């Protein structure tokens, strides 16, 4: 029998983990009864009773694996590390335990995978969220797609079923701060998109605040394109050319007619603040790239685990280990 793996990141989700496990288990006792199940819960150092509940579930269900992080490493790093322990023939990259992405779609995903699609991507065509957030997401993805060499669908997240071959390609990336949906898109392979409704969370509180969303957006932009630095270079050349032209014009006008030449402290102050602002913007952009490079060069483990339950002490072997 083929095995389907599901990775579920969680942080302080004691109200949701039991429900998530039970729904997935029932799917494999029903429509997916012809497949083995592997459900990997990745806990980001919860401070409530989440880990204790997961231990109880894993004690009674050997198909459940638990990875407990030594601290909160963020949802993407935590999830990517969980993928390294996946042993399934196909893997559902992320099924958050809040169930905003519907697990009921998994049987449909598996059917499409069996038909030959190597990436079955769920698309949040209808989001039960505010107009401001929807508009912000559309603007962000429009920017990313214009700057990158490949397209990232604005409605596709990490709720995707990947064939083992795609998983092996994905796990070859050594990114310290992986933007998973972007990495999947960069791999290619035969893909189909399945639309669904992204529902509101029923229990608990979302852990994604504004800072986290902005951090993810900047990570995506600076990880997949050099366009910001190229834009800074072009803008710098343009502004330098305009400044030189303005200086030459002022010099010529002064000798033609001193009254025509711009003068006064106001002109100097405006020019100074404008150019200083541009320089700070460019330095900040350069700093983002330097920081990203520094994180990659320093290396080290992406995530440090404090506890593994029903999990081998090292990630599952795959074809990448024999490359």
Description:
The protein has 10 helices and 8 strands. It is elongated. 47% of the residues lie in helices and 17% in strands. The protein has 2 domains: 3-204 and 300-314, Spore Coat Polysaccharide Biosynthesis Protein SpsA, Chain A (Alpha-Beta Complex), CATH 3.90.550.10; 227-298. α5 packs parallel to α8 and α9 (227-256) runs antiparallel to α10. An 8-stranded mixed beta sheet has the order 7-5-6-4-1-2-3-8. It is α/β, with parallel strands linked by helices and 323 residues long.
CATH superfamily of the largest domain: Spore Coat Polysaccharide Biosynthesis Protein SpsA, Chain A
Q: Work out the strand percent.
A: 15-25%
**Spatial shape:** elongated
Number of helices: 10
Radius of gyration: 25 Å
Q: For this entry, what is the oligomeric state of its chains?
A: single chain
Mean pLDDT, rounded to whole units?
77
Instruction: Kindly state the percentage of residues in helix.
Output: 40-55%
For the largest sheet, list the strands in their spatial order. 7-5-6-4-1-2-3-8
Q: Give the termini separation.
A: 26 Å
Main sheet, how many strands, which sense, barrel? 8 strands, mixed
- Unreliable spans are 319-323
Return the string of H and E elements.
EHEHEHEHEHEHHEHHHE
> Which class of secondary structure composition applies to the elements?
alpha/beta
Number of domains: 2
Topology:
Layout: E1 3-10, H1 17-29, E2 36-43, H2 50-60, E3 64-69, H3 75-83, E4 90-92, H4 106-114, E5 119-127, H5 131-147, E6 156-163, H6 164-170, H7 180-187, E7 191-198, H8 210-224, H9 227-256, H10 265-298, E8 305-309
Parallel strand pairs: 1-2, 1-4, 2-3, 5-7
Antiparallel strand pairs: 3-8, 4-6, 5-6
Helix pairs in contact: 5-8, 9-10
């Amino acid at each position: 029998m083929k095995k389907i793996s599901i990775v579920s990141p969680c942080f302080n989700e004691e109200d949701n983990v039991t429900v998530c496990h039970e729904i997935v288990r029932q799917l494999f006792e029903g429509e997916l009864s012809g497949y083995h199940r592997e459900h990997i819960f990745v806990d980001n150092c919860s401070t409530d009773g989440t880990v204790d509940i997961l231990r109880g579930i894993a004690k009674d269900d050997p198909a459940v694996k638990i990875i407990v992080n030594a601290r909160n490493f963020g949802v993407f790093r935590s999830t990517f590390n969980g993928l390294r322990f996946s042993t399934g023939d196909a893997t559902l990259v992320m099924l958050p335990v809040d169930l905003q992405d519907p697990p009921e779609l998994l049987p449909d995903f598996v059917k499409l995978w069996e038909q030959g699609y190597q990436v079955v991507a769920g698309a949040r065509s209808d989001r039960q969220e505010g107009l401001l957030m929807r508009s912000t997401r559309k603007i962000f993805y429009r920017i990313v797609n214009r700057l990158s060499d490949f397209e990232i669908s604005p409605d596709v997240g990490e709720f995707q079923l990947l064939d083992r071959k795609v998983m092996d390609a994905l796990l070859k990336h050594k990114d310290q701060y992986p933007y998973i949906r972007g990495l999947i898109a960069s791999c290619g392979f035969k893909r189909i998109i399945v639309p669904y409704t992204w529902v509101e969370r029923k229990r608990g509180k979302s852990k994604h605040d504004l800072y986290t969303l902005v951090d993810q957006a900047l990570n995506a932009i600076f990880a997949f394109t050099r366009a910001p630095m190229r834009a800074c270079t072009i803008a710098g050349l343009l502004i330098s050319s305009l400044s030189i032209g303005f200086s030459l014009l002022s010099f010529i006008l002064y000798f033609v007619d001193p009254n025509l030449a711009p003068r006064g402290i106001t002109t100097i102050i405006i020019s100074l603040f404008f150019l200083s602002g541009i320089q700070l913007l460019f330095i900040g952009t350069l700093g983002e790239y330097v920081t990203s490079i520094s994180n990659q060069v320093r290396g080290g483990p992406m995530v440090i685990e404090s506890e593994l339950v029903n999990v081998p002490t090292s990630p599952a072997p795959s074809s990448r280990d024999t490359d």
